[in-house]
Amino acid sequence: MELKIKTLEGKESGSVSLSDAIFGLEPRTDLIQRCVNWQLAKRQRGTHKAKDRSEIWRTGKKMYAQKGTGGARHGSARVPQFRGGGRAFGPVVRSHAHDLPKKVRALALKHALSSKAKDGGIIVLDKASMKDGKTKVLAQQFDKLGLANALIIDGAEVDAAFGRAARNIPNIDVLPVQGINVYDILRRKTLVLTKAAVEALEARFK
Q: In the chain, which ranges are continuous DSSP H helix?
């Protein structure tokens, strides 16, 4: 797959050939969904908590006589049947994370990249760098490129000035190539890759 390389000023700067083994697959939604579910489950905090009967501070004295009341037989006021009692089978602090094989994660990333390529949602930039991190200047350059909702993937390190300018623009995310992931690719309309990012991805999946 051939794509034209663009500069931040909106000009053309040659072309690049994208590997069909990474960007030319027929997207499988089942793999992509599994990876997204894995990512979202992993980042859940799991701090929800309800007190059970052992954590309720109340007297343990038997409420009333076992016989003779004509009602149900009760011993503790901490049980879930009473207002203020503990909750039965309530949520506890836990991790929601589950395992997903590394090969499945790698394949899901390829399919997510292929999905963007198939929809025409990939732009290749010559480089993502600025002399001074001015948000206004970068926003104007993004308007020329038609970027309103995008994920920008740079090489091993993001240019400090570029990252500083981009973080103030809504719906724009900037990540180094090590941080590329399925969920962030799908949640943004356009995927912007620098030449360094393309080379790093092809070296990674070689």
A: 20-23, 29-43, 102-118, 135-145, 160-166, 182-187, 195-204
CA dist 40 and 97 (Å) reads 9
Listed residue (161, 106, 107, 115) closest to 137, CA to CA: 161
Digitized pLDDT (tens) for each residue of the chain, 206 residues in all:
888 998 888 888 888 889 999 999 999 999 999 999 999 999 999 999 999 999 999 988 999 999 999 999 999 999 999 999 999 999 999 999 999 999 999 999 999 999 999 998 999 999 898 888 899 999 999 998 989 999 999 988 999 999 999 999 999 999 999 999 999 999 999 999 999 999 999 999 98
CATH superfamily of 2-45+97-204: Ribosomal protein L4/L1 (3.40.1370.10)
Measure the CA–CA gap between 95 and 41, rounded to whole angstroms: 8
